[in-house]
Amino acid sequence: MSARRPAIVSEVTSPASAAGADKALENSRRLWRIAVIMLALVAAGQVLLSTAKYGAGLSSDSVAYYDIARSLMSGKGYVFHSGEPLVCWPPLYPTLLALVGSATGLDPGAFAHIVNAVLFAFVICLSACLFWPAFRQDPAYGLLGVLAVLLSLPLSVVYAMAWSECLFIVLVLFYLVHAQRYWKSGSMWSLTLMLLSTALACLTRYIGVTLVLAGALTVMLASGLYLRVRLARTFAFVVVSLLPLGLWLVHNYQKAGTLSGNRFHPGFDLVPNAILAAMTILLWYEPVGMVAKLAPASVARAISPAGWSLTLTASLCVGLAGAIVLALALVLSRALRRRLACSLWSVFSECSPTVLYLAAYLVALLALASRGASSYVDHRLLSPVYVPVTQTLFMLIWSLTGQPSPAGAAIGRRVPMLLFVLWLCLPLQRVVASTAERFRNGAGGYSTSTWYKSETLAAARRLSEGSTIHAYSNGADALWALAGVSATMTPSRLEVRLEDLKGHWPAREASILVWFTIVTKRPYLFSIEELGSISSIERLAHFSDGFVYRVSVRDTTPAARN
């Protein structure tokens, strides 16, 4: 028995008028699909332009994904070139690269950017599937939402890089599309596709388990089914979606004695992380770049806390100002309070699966970042919520601007549409500028002109040719990715005390230390001065972007000290 209320028919429509409405809706759907396909092609083209110079951007995670993909292609399994097993990352993204590489005979570095372009096109199509049901009566409004996805700051960053988020976001959107359909219909087919996407998301990023929680709540709270049916489906959803991840964790424990590896990241406590996340999300939608440019330098220095950029300060100020104005309006207007409450309930009831996912993901992300199991909350880590947040905001504004009469509704909704069009000019300018920069200098990370023209990198490559000298470096991943030099990362203050390294580091006699001055985001590594206090370091060469040292264990015997 369905628990949904029957629709109330206010008037009887003739077959001719109903047929006309159906034809108009079909024409609208056809135009919508054409527009979405065009936007998807633009999205793919934008990624290809951003990665045209050196391929997809590379970070330390990207280097690990390429390493595992090459190992799979050579039949060695989920192990790095050093022989260590893959534990810290789930296996699906490097497996995808390996499958494509095996099918094409190409190295992952040669096609990862093409995979990203295809995945970003899928993001546009799946976003359209989320927006269409809510805005089918006004497709132009929904199309603005899809355009906002195309011009988004975090997605333009992510899809220029070889990161697992590229696949994870596609799986999240696939889940949300079918979770929305299940919420309205209770279809077993939609539930099956929810389950499949959830299981694959868990194998792409460990935080994919948030989809398990969100999906379980969605299945349990969906109306139209008996309680015992909902309980049975929820249990089956949780067990089956977690089964592949469980098998992978067992594999990790057998290979390395740990479920998901040990990760240590410098970070903030819960409250600062929450503030940082809020400011980052505000940056996606606020015209803070304009505010930052208009603010006088003296005012900027006065109001910016230590370590904060003016952009973050502007984001916080604009957000606080908006919150104050909204709070005053709600206090002064009972009608506005009632309308806002009705709109919030309408949005929640319409897209509950999206809201549940947002809550689960953000809470889990903040908890992990606050415990040091994840890095600072930034555009990359928050990118999987961009489309759901944008969908929720568009639906909320749509609900708030609706008027009782059709004429009033038309006028009320044209005004925010015009404002949205004007607002989209800001992300458009930002995406065009960032794409042009990446086209000139590389996609980012190690895939930039700075790294490809590195004198220190070239020197390390020459020293390693035909040599048995072992290399240590604060950019060991860059050495392997760009020069093919196998190196060990210098010690981290998060994993070992400096005094414990005395007489033990470096572990090999014939060793060099390649130190990049262009590596600036690893303050957790011991500095050259600190390493020099516990070992013997001799400078061999000095370049514009780094140094090469000979390094050996310092003799700590009494005779040596005398």
- CA-atom Rg in angstroms: 27 Å
Which structural class is indicated by helix and strand composition? mainly alpha
Q: So what's the overall shape?
A: globular
Helix content range of the residues, please? 55-70%
Question: On the 0-100 scale, what is the average pLDDT?
Answer: 84
Number of E strands: 5
> What is the element string, with H for helices and E for strands?
HHHHHHHHHHHHHHHHHHHHHEHEEHEEH
Q: Strand order, biggest sheet?
A: 2-1-3-5-4
The largest β sheet comes out as: 5 strands, mixed
Query: What's the N-to-C terminus distance?
Result: 90 Å
* SS element count, helices: 24
Uncertain stretches: 1-12, 289-308
What percentage of amino acids are in beta strands? 5-15%
Mind explaining what this structure looks like?
- The chain is 65% helix and 5% strand.
- The chain is mostly helical and 562 residues long.
- The protein has a five-stranded mixed beta sheet with strand order 2-1-3-5-4.
- Helix 11 crosses helix 14 (310-332).
- The model is unreliable at 1-12 and 289-308 (pLDDT under 50).
